[in-house]
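Predict both folds.
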Amino acid sequence: MRSGASPEMVVGERRSATKDDIMAGSARRPARRRTGSIGMEARDREELGRTLRRIDGRGYKAYRDLAGPWTFPTFVLHLDHVQGDPFASPSRVRVLVDAHHARFPPDLCRAGARELGASAYLARAFGLAARAASHRVGTGHGGEIHIETPGQEILEQTAVRLAADGTVEARFAVGLPARGRRVMADAARLLLLEVLPELVDRTLSHAAHDPAALRLHADTNEDAESLRAALRPLGLVAFVADGARLPRRSGVDDRPLDDPDVVPFRSPPSLHVEVTLPHAGRVSGMGIPTGVTLIVGGGFHGKSTFLRALERGVWNHVPGDGRERVVAVADAVKVRAEDGRFVAGVDISPFIDGLPLGRDTHAFSTPNASGSTSQAAAIVEALEAGATTLLIDEDTSATNFMIRDRRMQALVPKVGEPITPFIDRVGELSALGVSTVLVVGGSGDYLDVADTVVRMRDYLPDEVTSRAREVATKHPTGRAPETTAPLARPSPRRIDPTSIDPGKGRRQVLVKVPDARTLLLGPERIDLAAVEQLASPAQIRAIGRALALVAQELGAGPVALGDALDRVEAVIAARGLDGLDDRKVGDLAGFRRHELAAALNRLRSLRVV
């Protein structure tokens, strides 16, 4: 196996046999000698086989006799929740492999970036192998094996984790086979006693993988963390490495575009930066400085692709993604207009004030925001959650919020216009320590307020700040600034935790993620389609559990929104993502306080004091 292969390649090479071959091969192996459990009392695999024979043909709920731990020669199998019906959600299962059998090097188990990188690799490998071994048997979900498989981003997750002591744990779902609604013991024995041990052996030990490929994941993730940590000391908000490949396959496929015409990124000389990383050594690329940066250029020359790479730069990426060394500061937030969104008590007066009929905007609420009010609210909410960099694309912005040119100022004087456009606030934001990276192709007025101007041409950047200033001087717009009061940071809002109801019917907490952009929390549906930095449905699921935590632990009195975010972060810091759900589930992934705040702000039952 060649060094540096991706998890997909590794698993693909190791699973050249069909699932029937796997099952047959497992069945031919002699029974292993029992070597004991992982420090806990549990029944053994032979007893599991006897139990399955005993319940064969009985009603499906007889499968509940399998709940609990079972020792196998190299691991312990936990059936934490046994489904009560073949058509219900598959049973929740955990596998624990001790350090003696897993044999992962200590440096891969070290908490932090290396462990997260290695764990993501194992979760991906397990997912690919499980997909190959999984097949429907009988009725319902029988025979299915499913694990939350990571995408292109490396996130903290609960599917597979390496512990500091070298133990590896995998959490996944298994559909127990049924004939009608009766136990199908022969198929269950094959699944639990043959297919599952084979799957564990092939994915959850160090010997099952190419050591170089596994280490590459850990090294790459550690390098990305080091690169991000270097940004602020260098006065940067983002970095894009030379040779990066930014285009994606499609709007629904985040893998790199596999096309010979893809142009590798190359830094303009004037923005060239070099950084020394722990494993990659000296790397070069383009540094985006603090302040106001414009990304300009003609249509289809890569402006929005560039910005999308930056917005996902708050997460690390797997080797081979093309964006492994594209990073942004951890609190960079993409904001946009969002017609129809809910807004609760946000002070948008720095941007919109003096509405008709005397409507107050110092605590603005609406069930149906316009493009301009929604974008103003998004900016204020981002600042409230601690953002220090705003990422904005004019294509997804409200035009009247972004700019009022000289002609429109003459036609509609400021006295009759409630909007103070973003162009008149972006410099003040910079003075407050909040940088902006803005994609703009239609309004040259922004040249007057830019600190750095980058032109994209044929998918490559060129720094044109000096030329932009010459153009601004030679072609003055005559536009007058429209600010009426200085910009200040927003006052913190106090939310009413009782307005967050995660329960529905007999369930105290109901969290569902029906698609990649929707969260169902109790009776409420939260639309997260405009929260573009979300990278995984597992993040949305974890956010749902975090909102339930806010409702359950912060009492009935008003609490500052920032304090609520701090509380969730403290729980996760102390207990990991399991602090959000004590059922030891495998379908959660890490998120930032900014995505949590975005979901909370879009919860239509939210009340702000």
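Second protein follows, with its predicted structure tokens after the sequence.
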Amino acid sequence: MSIKDPAAMAHAIRALAMDAVQQANSGHPGAPMGMAEIAVALWDRHLKHHPGSPHWADRDRFVLSNGHGSMLIYALLHLTGYDLPMDELRRFRQLHSKTPGHPEVGVTPGVETTTGPLGQGLTNAVGMALAEKLLAAEFNRPGHAIVDHRTWVFLGDGCLMEGISHEAASLAGAWKLNKLVAVYDDNGISIDGPVKPWYVDDAAKRFEACGWNVVGPVDGHEVDAVDAALAQARAADKPTLVVCRTTIGKGSPNRGGTAKAHGEALGAEEIRLTREALGWSHAPFVVPAEIAAMWDARERGAQAEAAWNSRFAAYRGEHPELAAEFERRMQGRLPANFAQTAVDAVVAAHTKAETVASRKASQLALEAFTKALPELLGGSADLTGSNLTNTSSTPALRFGADGAPNGGRHINYGVREFGMAAIMNGVALHGGYIPYGGTFLTFSDYSRNAIRMAALMKQRVIHVFTHDSIGLGEDGPTHQSVEHAASLRLIPNLDVWRPADTAETVVAWTLAIGNATRPTALLLSRQNLPYAPKAGLAEIGKGAYVLAEPGEVGLKKKAQAVLVATGSEVQLALHAQALLARDRIAVRVVSMPSTTVFDRQSVAYKKSVLPAGLPRIAVEAGVTDGWWKYGCAAVVGIDTYGESAPAGVLFKHFGFTAENVAAVVRKVLSSK
């Protein structure tokens, strides 16, 4: 084994970062160049990973929260031996490369989460560390520590300026996540220049106040000093922030320490001068074999994984059922009995035909599913009694004085909607749990970017959004969701459900749990909703189905129009159908609990539900824009904000009555 030269190893990172950014003429060389020694200390001396097995269950998780510095992680992955050849570094930020502008999970081997929106990487890391801690408590047994890894996260000033960092730090401290280590690149520079005029926080005191251990500040360009700080962090009984003072763009004679190094290529002349200053005489994208050998972590990683495999084999020998369950959970497979559990729950809901709020129907579904699925990990942003995300199988999660969890599976996130959403993303990314969390639909605005990130990353995360319309009444327009359903439906790869009754709610939950590559948003009512009688249940899962033909109200004639409704407005459509039948006007009623799922169905099925030639009238207590794509002749909706009044008064005020819906149908038919 070659004698390691930490300075040369760090310079390899600097060279690759400035070369790739220069070739792309786009990117952020400053952070990789400034954090090079920090990366050497962590990746060469502390990080437990195997480049040949990026998904090994007990690997350490590494998150680059300051994702604009993506060439740092790409250089590290290449140098340590992941399947990321030099050609991919040459193609930095180019179409279909494995080195996109910001790290993307599922694109680059070894990248654990998609980062770039600042602060979310740190928050994802909190979720990962939480998952590790809970899995360890659930599966480890005396003499068998099969879950025993750490979560490391690099972050910068921008991450700490973002408000979500406060939410993440507070929860990590409350949960005593002692295997979480955040390394703060304290370089004092952002895109606009030195941060002192607008960022004067004492980060160390802030994190200490949140229950963290703080180490430093240390010189971030001294590998041994960073190494010692990381060793101190490993011994802590609480999460640790390691503060490293660095110079952004370290090594660049004219741009080091300035905003110019942050977000643009150094330029050919400055790169020449930087090479001279570093003593790096090698051509672009060339790392000498002796330096590459210093970085190569494949043999060490293979040994670490092999040792874990031996420990897991011994664990399996003593605890075969636990071992099988752990493997199932980490692979994201549902238990064999889940399908029958789901069928039984849907049939039970249909048979009982209860009149309850869909938020209550959600809780009834969760009672069955949380009992059958120990991986369901719930929570709420300080609204448990309103969101109804708790069940008899999910007691509140609490941590003892020693940091040990009590076995609870319901998380009180506090008033931290954004933090909750991003932590759930981290939990899902880690594996072993299916996270769900609740708040009011109107507060989805707070968590929207984390919802978007879950959709982008194709993670199974379930958002329970209650109080879905003006139906919440007296709280007024600040809390009444108007544009939120339409807005969430615009997010690619997010399934949005607004169920009308208990059966539709159970189906929505079933599909949300069963879909391993999409997050789901469940939009649920505060007010009670009557059960909508239906001939069958099979087509609910297609997102829309024919709920009632004219014959259901005594008319033996073909439909003249189609009423399409969601959620609480389905009952209005059914009542309007009955009113119209008195005048011999035949109407089909379609319940469309999920436009996003319906849009993926075959053309033939969509035509069977919404036949060509029949005028369509949509009914939903929200903005109308999203409904015109279905060729609607009219939409009964609300394109203003709500008012403060009892729910019944508001529905009448805004025209959500069976009489008005019927009147709109008559008007449409008379204009043909």
